[in-house]
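Before we proceed, please read the two lines closing this message. Tell me what the token row says about the fold.
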Amino acid sequence: MNIALLSHDSKKELMVQFCIAYKGILAKHNLCATNTTGRMVREATDLPVTLYLSCTQGGNEQILAKIAYDELDMVLFMADPLVRDQNRRDEVAQIMSMCDQYNVPFASNIATAELLILGLNRGDLEWREIMHMRNE
């Protein structure tokens, strides 16, 4: 499965800790992330992470395109609900909306991310692979 990792600045360390905790599960999948988040996760876990641009340079748009082209199976976005910048709040809404449109599981907090990762490990998301086979 292809998993995107994103986080607001104040939640980057939370994403790193999450990835350390679930390294065994994440190692079985393809990871991508916006630049800073991805570098931090890669340095802390030694997991291979494909890096995209930072969010301010177009990384979120790259993630949105991957969703639209059905190239992502899950998006984990550690979002800060108290972020003051409206653009930062809008980016979460935009990515969540795109995930809803294309049936991509999406988490915006650690509780939901943990449920998705544990479900992934149990095989609860195998329907994504079946969808991919039908579209080929």
In short: The mean pLDDT is 91.
